[in-house]
Structure formats: structure tokens, C-alpha cells
Amino acid sequence: MKKLLEGSQAVAEAVRLCRPQVVAAYPITPQTHIIERLAQHVADGELEAEFINAESEFGAASLVLGAVVGGTRAFTATASQGLLLMTEVLYNIAGMRLPVVMVCANRAIGAPINIFSDHQDSMALRDAGWIQLYVESNQEAVDSVIQAYRIAEACELPVMLCMDGFFLTHTFEPVELPTQTAVDEYLPAFHFDRTLDPGQPMTLGGGSEPDNYQEFRMAQHDAMENAVTVVEAFDTSFGEQFGRVYNGLVQAYRLEGAQTVLLGLGSLMGAVRDVVDKLRDQGQLVGALRLRCFRPFPAQTLVQQLGVTQRIIVLEKAFSAGAGGIVATELRAALQQAGMTTAVESVIGGLGGRDLTPEVIEAIFHGAQLDDNGASCRFVPHEYNPVE
Amino acid sequence: MILTDRQVTMSPCFHEIRFHGRGGQGAVSAAALLALAAFNEGFESQAFPKFGSERRGAPVEAYVRISSTVIRGHNQVYAPDAVVIQDVSLLRSKALLQGLKNEGLIVLNSEQQEADFNKGRNGSRWICLPGNRIGQNFLGRPLPNTALLGALAAGTGWVNLPALEQAVESHLVRKGEEMVKANIEALREGYRFVSQGEGVVS
Q: pTM of whole model > 0.90?
């Protein structure tokens, strides 16, 4: 049965259904209602878990690291500066190949101080070795939390589930919550082969010399590349059991015969699909492609989907200062690798919570005059700000 | 009638509502309650806030969409069919009626009928409701929230009173039975006020 739930609350319910035994978080703004709700569940006896208020985000990440090597399923959530403060530990979690699941409620990073949504926080962690999934709706957030544990535990890789702050976390919308029985069927009880045991001592994340460090990192890269098929497979099996699929890596919308395709991530893609419908009704051959899995980067799938497209626009809520759009740059490399010469227009917008309205998206489709900061990327100009 | 199962068919509709309040007045809760009531009636609905500074007294906006079809977008509301203003002093500082559709509805928390505000508006209707007084009477505090929702429901017919009552019951359950009862009384008073033609300025 569907319920009208706030995004954070819906995600907390999904986490509860996954039966984590340790939830650790640092209770500061920006923290999410996800953690608030989970704390309530633990206090009410609805979730048998240890809830730990950490002394910092660094501490929260360290606690979930320890919880997993201790043999328990763990969860944490954070955003923005909190994610950045976790950085060192997040690399360690990935390097130790620990199946941690975290939700990042995507928010801008300072300076200047801004609490609103964009993707600069999680994008800054793109090289940390975490699988990154970006969701469009709260239903997808719920379903993807459950998938994330399945993926993480199958690959021994951590998963960062990225959901837009406010646009999703604070939005009440209809969500179907799976039953406990169904989730238990999909997600086996937690098992971690390398659980630390004083009876059989071993070291995780110990020292490594120049003659083998690179091999550890190569193994990590291989695991990430292999995760492409795992992300797809567990989305498919989820669909078979629950009746909802997200096409694993990328979600195509009206690509048949599309000459212009807009690629983007996260909640903005709902409005993009509305705009695609409107332009299609006017006879314009446009489509949309949503990048759901950003890490590992599904280069092959993107090339397949965009093979015959004449004009590709990448609209991103993050960029690399001095280099331009992040996804656009990676897509250009993927196309070039495949011998394709299609130009990729890199458009940056929606930073610090600025709304990308259907009007702005339509203007981007129509090749609006955007701020030109050189060839690397263009920014949605200030005059496109929604009137409030 | 409140439908327990999701309604299968309904006549097409799409309403957007914008709430303006001050931190602590419950604009965010009001939006959630309205969306919940619409959802209880079988509509697709969505509610979310836009915070400025997260502190008591600072201006807050919240948005609601009610639709007969699935809502995919997550944008703010720029062209509302109705605006609910929880604090009359906000009218001085911001263009609260920005984007309001022609013949839109404004529900204002005010003791006085502020007919002057209607100048230059194309066919919009005003409902001026003494929400603080109703809140004081039933909740013991000048909270206009649920009374304004009752007025909006009576003024538009977009959601019905039992659905709103059900929403208050489920959403405020943790606040205790007394709070739920008092809010339902305030809701009914707001609804009664408008359905008897009080406070309406065309």
C-alpha cells in the first residue's frame, strides 16, 4: 500500500527494513531526518540496532567502518561539509573493501555557506572508490537503499546513495514501502568473510609496500568495473520481485529517434521528462538520459544509448573549477574511446539550490545563449533565475 | 467519503498551492497536511518546504501539488492557484502574490478584511480568516495553521473536510490525543467560517 512520506522518512523506513545492527551519525546541521527517524526507531524498539551519536562526521564514518569489520551491517547518512569531513575514512572504507551503505543528502559545499541542494559534495568524492547511485524520486531512494546493501555485500564495495537535499529529502510524495518479508527474501542476512575475530587474528587495511600497493588499487579498480554488471543484475532481480526497475545504470526516456538528448542526474530529471513530453508533442525529436550509476562510470552503456544522437547536452549540478563539467568530461572521453566524434555540450546549473525550472530546461534544449566560460562548460546565466 | 483504496479514476485536475509563513507558524506542517489529505482522497500529491534561515520568525515558504496524474517534477511552485498567507506582516516585505493565477485564491490570516490588497489583481478572491484567534481558542496558542487549511478546503473544494481530519489524526499522532482533537476543532472552525460566507472578499 502506498503512503505519503517525506523522503528522509521513507529512506529511514527502507534502512530499517534492511536490519542494520549499527547506525552511527553526527547530529549537526546539515544532518538529515533519516538519522532522526532511525534514532526514534531504535528508541521505540522497532529497530534492533546500536545507535551511536558520534563526536564528528569523521567519527561516524570510523564507527561504521569498525561495525562492518566487526561483522555487522551498518548505516550512516550525511551531507555537504559532513561528507567532506568523512573523506579520509571513506577512502579507507573503500580500500579495505567494506560493504558500508551511506546516504548522502546532496547539498552545496562552502564557502560561501549554503545549505541547499546540488551535487558538489558527492562529486568531490568520486575518486574515493565508492559506488555512487543518484536517484530521481523518493520511491527510487527507498528501493535503491535495499539494492545498495545487496550490491555492497556482493561486491565488497561501499555504496553511496545520493539523493537531492530538500528536493527529495524534504518532499512528501507517494511511496510504496516493501514488506519486511519481501526485503528479507531479497537481502540475505549480513555476512562478511573477513570479520575480525580475536580467535583467528588478521589485519585489515594494514601496511603495504611499493611493491604491492599498486596491485591493491588495481584490484579495487577491477572490483568497481565488475560492479557494473552487479548493479544491473540486482536492479533486475529487484524488479522481478518488487515490480519496479530503474534500468540499473542509466535510465533512457524517449530516446527513439531522438536527435537531441539531455543527460543529467537526480531529481531534476522529472522536470526534464515533462519538458521532453512537451517538445515531443510539438514534433521535436528530443529525449533524456538519466545517469543513475555514476561510479562505476557506465561508459559502454552510455555509448550504446547515445550512438546515433546528433546533439548531446549534459546538465550538471557540479563542476570541477578550472576544468568544467565532470560528467560531461567523462562522457567525452567515453565517446572518443569508442571512436565517436559527437560534441558534448556541458551546461552547469542548479548550484546552491537554484531551481532548474521546466522553462530553463526548455531553453537549454533550444540552445539558449548561456554564459560561455570557454569550451569546457557553460553556466546557466543569472537572468534564467526563477522569478520569486 | 474517504477512500481506503487508491482511487482508480477521477476527473483530471492539477492544483498548485503556495504557503507563506514565519518559522514556527507551521507552514511546512500545513503543506504536509494538505498533501496528505489529497493523498487520502486518492489524488497524487506532493509537499515540500523552502527554508531561508532556519530560525523562528524567518520567512518560510512551502509548496503543495495536487494532481489526478503522477507528479514527476520537483520544482518550486511559481504560478500557484492559491496562496495561503499565515502572517499578514509578510505582505509588507515580499511580493507574495507573485505568479498567482488570474482568478486565484488568497487565504490570509487576518482579523480584518484586507480588501485593499486586491487592487490590480485580476479576479482573485480573498478569504480573510482570524486564524490566530481560532488557534488561541482551540490550541491555547495563536497558531493559524489548521484553521487556514479548513478555510482553504471550504474556499476551493480541492480536498474535503474528513480527509483533512484524517490527515491531522495521522500526522499529529505523536503530539497526543488532545493536540489532535484541538487541531480538528480549529480545522472545522476555519471550514465553517468560510462555508457560511464570512471573511470572503471578491
A: yes
